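Standup notes, structure subgroup. Blocker cleared on the adenosine-5'-triphosphate input:
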Amino acid sequence: MIELRGLRKAFGANTVLDGIDLDVGRGESLVVIGGSGTGKSVLLKCILGLVTPDAGTIRLDGQDTREMPRDAFLARFGMLFQGGALFDSLPVWQNVAFRHLKDGLSRPEARARAVDSLARVGLPERTADLYPAELSGGMQKRAALARAIAASPQVIFFDEPTAGLDPIMAGVINRLIREAVTDLGATAVTITHDMTTVHAVADRVGLLHGGHLRWMGPAAELDRSGDPYVEQFIHGRAQGPIATLR
Ligand SMILES: Nc1ncnc2c1ncn2[C@@H]1O[C@H](COP(=O)(O)OP(=O)(O)OP(=O)(O)O)[C@@H](O)[C@H]1O
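Run returned:
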């Protein structure tokens, strides 16, 4: 479904992605882990066309994404950004139904769909008419997730979906991500530092380091990867091949 070949991106002398090859299958949930600043966000931004790669190809169902009309391309994606990124000036339902409204659906119909999506993430109908600022952080995250899945996208990107949430709410979000994959049949790519998220949502895990996907394997094999970088990361050790600033 998503196919990357030789993807490279440097910012000046800082080579962030140094030839990434990656295949993500339809309906698969891939989690990308890696230290801070290793290029996880840049990788997602390249796929979305928000950052232009220096070299390499990105294909979606076999088609080069540079040749796809921008609107048609973006219509296939849902995104949950760090911090939720809801529009403050719009009530929650208009945030959630943003794409339906853009596509010309009537307001009552769009609102009804938004209420359905909110229910899916456990938010009651009364939240539909509130503004994002009137929701707690965890509720905002759920509303943003409702928006990400509202238009039943084929691919959903989750950038640090549990950052800043308490463990219970993080568990709720992880379950919802897994449901988006299993119930909606979506392909998911998640960036996280949260090992609970890795175990809850990943079919496959990739560790990004030094511009490469240094280790890639089924989630079940993460604990016996035998790779010192993976070992250090999953056990959160300061000592190891991944340098830490002290
Ligand atoms: N627009 C940009 N201009 C210059 N450098 C950039 C830009 N975007 C990202 N970078 C650099 O690319 C590197 C990777 O950044 P990125 O945000 O992808 O890291 P990350 O792996 O997502 O980190 P974190 O886990 O801390 O969010 C960093 O060194 C960053 O400074």
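Discussed briefly. The pocket of adenosine-5'-triphosphate is lined by residues 11, 14, 16, 34, 36-42 (CB under 6 Å).
Next: hand off to the docking folks.
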